[in-house]
Input
Amino acid sequence: MIQQSFIENLTQVEVRAEALSPDTMLLHRFLLGQSEKSAGETAEKIVAEIARLTLAAPFRQMQTPGGRTMSAALSNCGLLGWVTDRQGYRYQPTDPDSGRPWPAMPELFRALAQQAAAAAGYAGFNPDVCLLNRYQAGARMSLHQDRDEKNLDAPIVSFSLGLPALFLWGGLKRGDGVLRWTLEHGDALVWGRSDRLRYHGIAPLPSGQHPLTGAVRYNLTFRQTGLPAG
Ligand code: MD6
Ligand code: FE
Output
């Protein structure tokens, strides 16, 4: 459950917290609303970090176990990274393209992810993985569960930057009905507990231009996997 005091703080800086279900919180503009004066600065820093991180570990389109090419391009930072190829989905400590460890998770990322988790009622979140997704026009993410982590008690924290996207939010079974809402620049989404294994996805990204990111949407998802880091 979200902490009342945090909701009051959020109201003051005009960040709107929306409980989408008991264990899922959408923090509208969380990454923009730290204060009127600095609005946008945090988002600019995050986008600059994405550019720096992906010099070391470039975005790439990975293969699914079924042999399809994912339309979103992926990279990672942190002790582990999520990868997929013909062998399956897994976490590994090295970038399969370079053989090198994934870049370290920036302190800014860790701090913001921890703050968002705490705001949504998940104290003590300590992510070991940040999966970076880049969507260009037409890119999508089909309905999936995030279940490659060992520790399903920890929530997932997701940040959206750049172009808006339609988020698809299903139930615990693939065939359950799907709700749709828009994830906008600066939004943080936190979910866990009874919602942790909900199916979810992203509808094909409409084309557009964003002043900070250009023609793309970035999504960062932070996980605390409970897996050994190599
Ligand atoms: C995306 N997000 O927003 C894809 N998973 O581009 C996810 O797959 C996701 O936003 C788990 C929790 C939050 C998410
Ligand atoms: Fe996911």
The CA atoms of residues 14 and 124 lie 25 Å apart. Residues 144, 146, 200 surround fe (iii) ion (ligand 2) (CB under 6 Å). The first strand starts at residue 17 and ends at 21. The chain has three helices and 13 strands.
